């Protein structure tokens, strides 16, 4: 397999460009022509007008057939085309019916190919139809397995796809050891992976089964609080951890545990950050934890921290701050 | 070049014309090995080496009966003689012999010195100044010559026609045709404009994408916050309802207990009331049924009286028995008396 990327093929003018390329990528042409045609398709598909033309001329079907090709370079280029086309809406629609075929390429040797496949799947998962298809083809357990075994570059994309799918499939994920896998992922080096696994943890614990599972894990609250405390980590990671903590602490057991682990002071620190997500999440979390009497008494002394946010320009933050104050100052 | 042998026609075989191959003119031999497709090149009869040429009057004609027999069968000598080639050779030999005889005769006639007498021999002697060695061995010198085996056809030389016409020259001076600086402006404008337009488009796209992402992010945040707040409120509600339920059950329990207590009290009062009259009646009845007794009395009654009465009864029985016996006696006596009286 040649590692060198081939040059693009020579392009015909205007209307003939894509039909000619379509003819050049068929199976009966020689390898070099096909590779070069695929490369030029790669470059052309970044432009959305050309992307529309590609879809309307049915080129996606031809490219989809190349996903089975014995030649490695052809497959790599085909997956790259899919990845780029999926960044356009038209391409996403066209790529929906190739999700099963793409899922067969998970065990490719070439890591670029795998990365492109997962990129394409991530963009498809932004559509609800894409997510429902993935769930139908039972890709959730496959994703969980891959999250354990793949390299970091590829895992970034898989975890984002997984996060998108969790809105609809959190039960299935829980049954397939999703919770344990996400916990393992929290210790990886890569910032994106940690951020998205925290978000996925928050999603997975939205329903009661997830909460039960989370509450049965003794060390989770502690771990999350350490992440929030750690100012060296990025703001996104800390706010995602905050969201996860909030989701876990809704049950009484979780609440009491979190307050016992002294969650409130790092949350107040997070409130001072500039990021709107951080503010929002910390306000929500504080309101959840203030329902515990210990938490309420702690926060009653710090009401002045929250009062400025009631007048904030951001509506969400203002509402959240009002809610928070209401909870803290509630009297039976 | 294939030619087939046309069989000689015998006098007997003068049938209608039949041929084995279509008669075709002779084709000339190719001169060069890789003669590029000269096609059918026909040769001239007159310049063909295989054809016998010249005056044919002196040559013998083939007898009409001869046939050229090329087969591998045993060739008869007699048949050979009839071979036209052999005939020709024979004829030539005869001619040569005649010519030789003639020449000898001429030589003898023109000889300057007479022939040697018997017993003598004439020898040629060199009489020149410089003697020459006469040997049988002829000085030979080998000279070889070899033609190139098939020459490749040399390529045709390029046809360069002879130069005709008149030479002229012209020269365009720098600023005659156009002014570069002026002309290049619109082209540059287009180029730069297109580039800038393209990049502006891309920048707008990126900005739009950023905005979209921002919107998405905000939506996700809002959604998460909503979900968490909703869940918190749900949880609160759940707790409150749980508490309420517990309180209600507690109250119910209390009320039940109260009711039970009230019932117990009422039952107790009624029972008391009911039982108040009952005791003397019960005692009276018991006393009447003999459940309260004086033990001595009882003892007397049970033991002593029983004996006493038994004895009394015995006594009475005895007296009764006696009376019965007496009665019986009397009856017996009376009946016997009656019988006696009869």
From TrEMBL, chain A:
Domain of life the protein comes from: Eukaryota
SUPFAM superfamilies on file: ARM repeat (SSF48371)
Gene3D superfamilies in alphabetical order: Leucine-rich Repeat Variant (1.25.10.10)
InterPro entries: ARM-like, ARM-type_fold, RSP14
PANTHER family: RADIAL SPOKE HEAD 14 HOMOLOG (PTHR15599:SF1), RTDR1 (PTHR15599)
Descriptive protein name: Condensin complex subunit 1 C-terminal domain-containing protein
Organism: Oikopleura dioica
Automatic annotation (TrEMBL), chain B:
Extent of the signal sequence: none
Keyword Cytoplasm: yes
Stated name of the protein: Radial spoke head protein 3 homolog
One family name in Pfam for this protein: Radial_spoke_3
Stretches assigned to coiled coil: 195-253
Organism: Oikopleura dioica (Tunicate)
Subcellular location: Cytoplasm, Cytoskeleton, Flagellum axoneme
Family: Belongs to the flagellar radial spoke RSP3 family.
Keywords recorded for this protein, A-Z: Cell projection, Cilium, Coiled coil, Cytoplasm, Cytoskeleton, Flagellum, Phosphoprotein
This protein's GO CC annotations: cilium
Lineage: Eukaryota, Metazoa, Chordata, Tunicata, Appendicularia
Biased composition (Basic and acidic residues): 98-112
């Amino acid at each position: 397999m040649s590692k060198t990327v081939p040059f693009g093929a020579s392009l015909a003018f205007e209307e003939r460009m894509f039909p000619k390329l379509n003819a050049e990528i068929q199976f009966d042409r020689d390898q070099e022509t096909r590779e070069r045609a695929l490369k030029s398709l790669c470059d052309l598909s970044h432009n959305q007008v050309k992307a529309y033309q590609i879809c309307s001329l049915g080129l996606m079907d031809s490219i989809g057939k190349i996903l089975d090709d014995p030649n490695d370079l052809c497959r790599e280029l085909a997956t790259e085309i899919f990845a780029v086309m999926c960044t356009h809406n038209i391409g996403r629609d066209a790529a929906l019916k190739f999700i099963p075929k793409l899922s067969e390429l998970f065990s490719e040797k070439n890591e670029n190919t795998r990365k492109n496949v997962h990129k394409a799947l991530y963009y498809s998962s932004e559509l609800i139809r894409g997510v429902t298809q993935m769930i139908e083809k039972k890709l959730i357990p496959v994703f969980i397995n891959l999250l354990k075994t793949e390299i970091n570059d590829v895992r970034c994309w898989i975890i984002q796809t997984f996060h998108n799918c969790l809105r609809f499939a959190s039960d299935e994920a829980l049954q397939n050891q999703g919770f344990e896998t996400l916990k393992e992922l929290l210790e990886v080096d890569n910032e994106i992976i940690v951020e998205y696994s925290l978000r996925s943890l928050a999603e997975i614990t939205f329903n009661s089964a997830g909460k039960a599972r989370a509450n049965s894990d003794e060390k989770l609250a502690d771990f999350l609080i350490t992440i929030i405390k750690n100012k060296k980590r990025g703001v996104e990671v800390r706010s995602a951890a905050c969201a996860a903590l909030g989701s876990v602490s809704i049950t009484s057991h979780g609440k009491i545990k979190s307050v016992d682990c002294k969650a409130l002071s790092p949350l107040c620190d997070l409130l001072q950050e500039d990021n709107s997500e951080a503010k929002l999440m910390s306000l929500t979390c504080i309101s959840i934890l203030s329902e515990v009497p210990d938490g309420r008494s702690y926060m009653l002394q710090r009401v002045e921290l929250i009062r400025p946010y009631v007048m904030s320009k951001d509506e969400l933050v203002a509402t959240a701050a009002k809610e928070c104050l209401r909870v803290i100052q509630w009297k039976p | 070049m294939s030619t087939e042998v046309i069989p000689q026609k015998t006098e007997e075989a003068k049938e209608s014309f039949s041929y084995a191959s279509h008669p075709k003119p002779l084709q000339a031999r190719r001169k060069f090995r890789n003669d590029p497709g000269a096609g059918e090149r026909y040769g001239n009869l007159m310049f063909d080496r295989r054809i016998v040429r010249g005056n044919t009057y002196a040559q013998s004609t083939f007898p009409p009966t001869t046939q050229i027999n090329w087969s591998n069968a045993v060739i008869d000598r007699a048949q050979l003689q009839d071979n036209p080639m052999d005939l020709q050779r024979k004829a030539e030999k005869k001619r040569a012999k005649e010519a030789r005889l003639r020449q000898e005769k001429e030589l003898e006639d023109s000889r300057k010195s007479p022939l040697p007498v018997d017993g003598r021999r004439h020898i040629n002697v060199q009489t020149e100044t410089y003697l020459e060695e006469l040997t049988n061995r002829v000085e030979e010198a080998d000279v070889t010559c070899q033609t190139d085996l098939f020459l490749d056809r040399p390529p045709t030389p390029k046809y360069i026609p002879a130069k005709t016409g008149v030479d002229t020259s012209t020269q365009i001076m720098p600023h005659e045709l156009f002014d570069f600086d002026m002309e290049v402006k619109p082209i540059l404008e287009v180029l730069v404009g297109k580039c800038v337009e393209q990049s502006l488009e891309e920048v707008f796209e990126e900005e739009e994408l950023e905005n979209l992402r921002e919107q998405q992010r905000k939506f996700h945040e809002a959604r998460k916050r909503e979900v968490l707040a909703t869940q918190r409120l749900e949880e609160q509600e759940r707790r409150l309802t749980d508490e309420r339920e517990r309180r209600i059950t507690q109250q119910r329990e209390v009320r039940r207990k109260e009711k039970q207590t009230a019932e117990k009290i009422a039952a107790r009062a009624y029972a008391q009331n009911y039982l108040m009259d009952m005791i003397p009646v019960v005692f009276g009845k018991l006393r009447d049924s003999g459940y309260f007794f004086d033990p001595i009395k009882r003892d007397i009654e049970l033991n002593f009286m029983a004996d006493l009465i038994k004895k009394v009864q015995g006594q009475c029985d005895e007296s009764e028995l006696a009376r019965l016996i007496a009665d019986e006696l009397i009856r017996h006596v009376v009946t016997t008396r009656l019988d006696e009286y009869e």
